[in-house]
Amino acid sequence: MILTVTPNTALDVTYTVDGLAPDGVHRVREVRSRAGGKGINVARVLRALGADVVAIATVGGPTGAAVTAELGAAGVAADWVPIAGETRRTTTVLGDDGSVTLLNEPGPALSGEEWTALAGAVRRHEPDVLVCSGSLPPGAPPDGYASLLGGTSVLDTSGAALLAGLAARPAVVKPNAEELREVTGLDDPEAAARELVKAGAGAVVVSLGPDGLLAVTGSGTWHATPSTALRGNSTGAGDAVVAALALGLNRREPWPDILRRAVALSGAAVLGPLAGDVDLAHYHRELGLVAVRARPEQE
Predict the structure, then answer these.
(1) Which residues contact 223 (CB under 8 A, 6 or more apart)?
(2) Are 276 and 67 in contact (CB under 8 A)?
(3) Do residues 20 and 93 lie in contact, with contact meaning Cβ atoms separated by under 8 Å?
(4) H helix or E strand, kind and range, residue 182
(5) What do you get for the CA distance between the two ends of the chain, in Å?
(6) Sign (positive/negative) of CA torsion 160, 161, 165, 167?
(7) Other CB atoms within 10 Å distance of the CB of residue 112
(8) By C-alpha distance, which of 32, 31, 57 is closest to 42?
(9) Selection from 8, 269, 6 nearest residue 121 by Cα
(10) Per residue in 15-36, is it b (16+ CB within 10 Å) or e — as a string?
């Protein structure tokens, strides 16, 4: 079983507009909302692939009630941790010109007791793979993810939370190129990824946007690229990559196979209407088209 943890849950609201311009008035053609937060998106993708997955997430107030109702209707198994604060909302504005604009609220502060309850929920389960995703909410301990991680784990966060999480020696961390540059100060993704490996990561998989994925692992370094560039909603692409990493670790697949699925799923997520959706037809077509190339090892 794969367990995902979302300490900063959200109700994702998506607006579709003709285009987005500063200081302008915009008519929204379509409004869609659903349970969100990175770990919940990961769980949704894994369920679409038929994996055994449970999502742990915090919820509070009427917005939290909407989150629990929507995810229950979607058929994703969840273990909810009640909190006093109101669950945050995130807003994505999709323009017909291909623009994607995100507005992410910080989320409610968690008390010490609420964080203890979240950690207890994680300990109640005995997953084969543990996934910790997203930002830490206000009030969470600085080493919050390090205190949760154990066994075979995937960490997808940024900044101080990412650096602190390395102390728990996660099997994989998955920053994007900008997040990696932020925590290492290095412009070269491969050199930066090797710094995170030295600091405790078992492997580092870097999202390079349309250029695919770079993986620095204990058994080799690879660059995986899609067969074609896609246009759509990129907000859930990284979460789809994390889902592929967790599934591959659970099945103990070799890295080239894991990366092939990760790139194919990432593209399938770009074609999905909302974060957590994947175009399964594209995923199955793309699996055989992703190029995975080994890179020479550095001294």
Answers:
(1) 212, 213, 214, 215, 292, 293, 295
(2) no
(3) yes
(4) helix 177-184
(5) 38
(6) positive
(7) 10
(8) 57
(9) 6
(10) bbbeebeeeeeeeeeeeebbbb
38's tokens: 């990175």
Query: Token pair of 244, please?
Result: 């592929």
Assigned token pair, 106: 């910080």
Q: pLDDT 10s digit of each residue in the chain, 299 long?
A: 999 999 999 999 989 998 888 888 888 998 999 999 999 999 999 999 999 999 999 999 999 999 999 999 999 999 999 999 999 999 989 888 878 888 988 889 999 999 999 999 999 999 999 999 999 999 898 899 999 998 899 999 999 999 999 999 999 999 999 999 999 999 999 999 999 999 999 999 999 999 999 999 999 999 999 998 888 878 889 999 999 999 999 999 999 999 999 999 999 999 988 888 999 999 999 999 999 999 886 54
Which tokens is 220 given?
A: 């080799």
Q: Which residues pair with 59 in a beta bridge?
A: 82
Tokens representing 268? Answer: 């399938």
Six-digit token pair at 96? 């017909």
How many whole angstroms separate alpha carbon 204 and alpha carbon 256? Answer: 14
Say what the pLDDT of residue 297 is: 67
Q: Kindly list the catalytic residues.
A: 239
Answer whether 267's CB lies under 8 Å from 234's CB.
no
CA separation for the pair 157, 7 (Å, rounded): 11
Contacts with 76 (C-beta within 8 Å, 6 or more apart), sequence order:
40, 43, 44, 47, 53, 55
Beta strands in the chain (DSSP E): 2-6, 10-17, 30-36, 53-59, 78-82, 88-95, 100-104, 129-133, 153-156, 172-173, 204-207, 213-217, 220-225, 291-295
